[in-house]
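JOB MANIFEST
job_type = single_chain_structure
chain_count = 1
residues = 327
[input]
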Amino acid sequence: MLKVSNLQELIEQEIRNYCKKWESSIPYNLYHPVSYAMNVGGKRIRPLLVLLAYQLYGNKPESVLKAAVAIELFHNFTLLHDDIMDKAEMRRNQPSVHIRYNENTAILSGDVMAFLAYGLLMEIPAPGIIEVISQFTHTAREICEGQQMDMDFESRLNVTPEEYLEMIRLKTAVLLGCSLRVGGLLAGCDNETGRLLYQAGIDLGLAFQLKDDLLDSFGDEQHFGKKIGGDIVANKKTFLLVEALQRAGSSRKEELERWLKKGKFNKEEKIRCVRSIYDELDICRVTEQKINEFSSKGIESLNRVGVSVERKEPLLTLVNSMMNRIS
């Protein structure tokens, strides 16, 4: 059984191998952006979850690397299109694909990434591959639903915390659930184990996104790797904002809404004022409680998976690092 660091090396090497192949594929302007998108890094959490879930039962994680890369490909495809819709100019401290190339190229290269992911899955000679592809397809549709909800929220001031949690479940958490279930299925786990792995991924994915929301407004800029307060400046509907709008009294709610409606403003002043309202309403504590609630539920599901503690240890180590991250 391989450690997390060894699995990370396997994933990175496999991605490098595919990137070399794509870089030499024709047409260049279709495949080179795919290599660029995959080479700018990232935490590689989703492919790691595939391999760690597989290792709960299986002993040859290299045999399911194609599934791990497929899920990372699909994840990066969604980011590529998200950046276009959000007009985001940077991704992981590098120019976004639509900035590095152009918008039309980014759209088409993103499309081919989705089909490359399906192609990789089809190459896996596993008895449960139909169920894997079915789960992957269902997840892909849900991610699109979550993205549409996120876009719909942009023009609404009355988004509830419950609606927000459903949106991030679809947009973010389902792919973590899919990653764990796919890894388990490829190792031959039973239906109940697959259900537990999927639910663990959903709860941990919710906790992960809420942690992201919290760090964007209150993280350490040096560790977070980008300027704090970006979500506040962009009027992004985060758990912190929707919870604050629901908890605020009339005067504070009006103040928040004024900032949301302002066309021109000083960025630093807006960040400072909105954060002061969050502090006044104890939004950090509320968010941390939700993070702890979902992470505890996710770990509980993993603890119910019927394998030895030794088999679970690498997966639980990764989960712990995800929940305690500062960047």
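[summary]
The domain at 1-125 is CATH 1.10.600.10 (Farnesyl Diphosphate Synthase).
The beta strands are 90-91, 94-95.
exit_status = 0
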